[in-house]
Amino acid sequence: MNFTKNDIQQIENKGLTFAQIQSQLELFETGVPFVNLSKAATINNGIVKSSEESKAHYINYFDTKRNAVTIAKFVPASGAATRMFKTLFRFIDEYIPENETINSFVNKHKDADLSLFFVGIEKLPFYEKVLERVKVFYPDYASYSNDRQKLLFVKTMMDDDKMNYGFYPKGLLPFHEYKDHLATAFEEHLFEAALYASSNNTAYLHFTISEVYKDMFDDEFSRIQDIVEHKTNTKFNISFSYQKETTDTIAVTPENELFRADDSQLTFRPSGHGALLENLNQMDADVIFIKNIDNVVVYKYEDEVAKYKKVLAGMLLEIQHEVFEHLKQLKNGEVSEQDIITISEFLEHKLNVVISSEFQKYSTKYQIEYLFDILNRPIRICGMVKNEGEPGGGPFWVKGETGQISLQIVESAQIDKENKKQNEILKNATHFNPVDLVCGIKNFKGEVFDLQAFVDPKTAFITKKTSAGKDLMALELPGLWNGSMANWNTIFVEVPLITFNPVKTVTDLLKPTHQIE
Fold it and tell me: What is the pLDDT of residues 271-323, one digit of tens each?
């Protein structure tokens, strides 16, 4: 491909190197390989099912250790709520009340989500708030037909010269209605953090947001800080970061030519949530909880959710302690043959590591190096929920290029569904990943790992997008909890569905975990 001087300058201005762009273009040319599933991870075969006794043990272990370690909560929160209101945008664009009823519109488009929206409209947390504004913008509202009132209600919510909810980040939309106030997802994350992501009555939360929303988040924190700190007896230390421009990837045409805008400039796109590895890489805490901004519950369910977060965190701290003891032993070189067996069994039984079949043939020196290398990695404990029709990446045993088998979280798009065997393994999956992680990112010396060193670059995604009406191919970096953590030590643990309450569409707010009554 031919690059002009202006192209090179544009690449450098973004903080990217020409070599990085060449590497991205090679991926477009060769294609991203599908993963090679070995089998689905299931209970007692890659997924731990904790007994009530062991849950109590891990909760107690965490509670006794939490004030001696640093804890943070990492919340990806950069997305606008546009997708959440997709069905409402279409309704505004296409519905003409003079020509048809809302019922006929719903039936014509088979839009069950829109139907549910109107059926449950009075239970939405922002119903009264929007209704007040409707009457300001449309003083004759009460005289209109029922269908026209519904249209004006939606327009008041969505129009950019009115409430403009489609512009808001999800984290700042009213999610829950209490007797005396409306709570945003951002606020709920603070209350939740006080229960399990705090140490010495202080909670550190880091939100990755779009820079355009920074002042809005600051204003929201100023509004609720005193109330939340008083109710929880917890001080909150809130920080923000933005997806870095240096993680953007170049776009190409469907023919793999450079995609240029009308002004002949190269086109770059944000590279998906995998780009947030750079943000996570700047964290410095012993225990990091990762949870999406829209996965919150109303107050009455928070204790149940917190219970399982503590289970995962207790397991992390206990496993990490054992890992560090083994690493110190290996580093000192005082290792007997029995020690090597003990550490190997720990890796196999506790960390789900498939030891190389050649291991017994290695010299003692190389066995020690091999075990040290595998142990000396970041650790993630991942909650897994039983499949009940909800979308999400799944837990699988995956065979790598070298034949090494490891536990991975795999997205559906990474699987070759045309391959009968692979499709069969996919169908056998019993659980999915609700983005419920507790991570240890420090080594046994207390130093933070360089998380970029544990990425599998071949687990990127190529997706079809449009720009100004033209098709383009976009490259997404390996997902934050998928390929970006491919070479971490991994434990999957079954957690109940109560821990997974995402708001993908506005009608999800009608589900019991988002309703007070």
Answer: 888 899 999 999 999 999 999 999 999 999 999 999 999 999 999 999 999 99
Residue 388 has pLDDT above 90, yes or no: no
Q: CA 278 to CA 490: how far, in whole Å?
A: 20
Domain that holds residue 107: 83-158
Structure tokens at 302: 């928070």
Q: Count how many domains the chain has.
A: 1
Residue 461: pLDDT band (50, 70, 90) is confident
Is 137 a member of any domain? yes
Q: Tokens 């997974």 correspond to what residue?
A: 500
Residues 6+ apart with CB under 8 A from 42: 428, 430, 431
What whole-number distance in Å separates Cα of residue 93 and Cα of residue 74?
37
Question: For residue 508, is it within any domain?
Answer: no
Strand pairing of 37-40 and 379-386?
unpaired
Q: What's this model's pTM, rounded to 2 decimal places?
A: 0.94
Single out the residue of 360, 322, 319, 325 nearest to residue 341, CA to CA.
360
Joined together, the tokens standing for residue 378 give: 């970041």
Q: What's the CA gap between 291 and 276, in Å, rounded?
A: 13
| Closest listed residue to residue 125, CA positions, set 68, 184, 72, 78 | 184
Burial per residue of 152-179, b for 16 or more beta-carbon CB atoms within 10 angstroms, e otherwise: bbbbbbbeeebbebbebbbbbbbbbbee
Q: In terms of C-beta density within 10 A (0-12 exposed, 13-18 middle, 19 or more buried), how is residue 397 classed?
A: buried
Do the domain assignments include residue 375?
A: no
Helix (H) or strand (E) holding 464: strand 461-467
